[in-house]
């Protein structure tokens, strides 16, 4: 019979018999198998996160979570939509190439103007809405009297 030390879960155990040695080996093999599975899983997760699709998704999420970028994206979208709507309202849908060119110029101009003077337009719209609402309130007061 031989004495030897076996490390199991960071604790040293003294092995006195062959049976206890076999048990200690079985425990260590099980621990090794579990660690191997965990390592393979972590490797697969790392590979998955490095795929171009996931890298792009992560980048987009990080960018859109930034308040400054979100504000800029909203401003740009507002400008583009306003330009498109103004083109559709004024010219409608046409096959005439001159009108199409005029519509493209109009859309670009409105988009640029809205992007450049967005804060002034917001202030103007607020004043207009307040004036309209106050006008309705004064009419309601006159009618009630």
Task: State the shape.
Answer: elongated
Q: What structural class results from the helix and strand content?
A: mainly alpha
**N- to C-terminal distance:** 112 Å
- Largest sheet, strands/sense/barrel: 2 strands, antiparallel
What's the total number of strands? 2
Structural Rg? 36 Å
Number of helices: 5
Element order: H for helix, E for strand: EEHHHHH
Structure write-up:
It contains 5 helices and 2 strands; from the N terminus they run ββααααα. The chain is elongated. α3 (67-91) runs antiparallel to α4. The termini are far apart. A two-stranded antiparallel ribbon has the order 1-2. Helices cover 81% and strands 7% of the residues. β1 and β2 form a beta hairpin. With 145 residues, the protein is mostly helical.
How would the blueprint of this fold be written?
Elements: E1 4-8, E2 11-15, H1 18-49, H2 52-65, H3 67-91, H4 97-116, H5 118-144
Antiparallel strand pairs: 1-2
Helix pairs in contact: 3-4
Summary, kept brief:
With 145 residues, the protein is mostly helical. The protein has five helices and two strands, in the order ββααααα. Helices cover 81% and strands 7% of the residues.
